[in-house]
Amino acid sequence: MEKLNLTPEEILDKQFDVDFKGYAPNEVDSFLDKILEDYQIMEENVQQLLDSVAKLQEQVKELTNRNIELEGRKVAFDLSNTTSYSSVDILKRISRLEELVSNK
User: The whole model's pTM is what?
Assistant: First the structure.
């Protein structure tokens, strides 16, 4: 971002020289040109910041969607692992029962 030419204090404290017709027109025009430049810089800075905010909001949306997807996969993975473990446990129990029945 570019540095501004004037601070609010400089604008507030500016004193123009007085000539026989009032303030010196060239001095006032020069000062107003600096103010105009600052406003243009401010507008550019604001637009850059708004563009950055829009990009960051889009990234947040994408990352949130990705996080939801990954959490869903994790839940599915956990459920599939739990199911497979319980199936193994059931098979072991059946095997033990078969052994007991066959030993009698």
Answer: 0.54
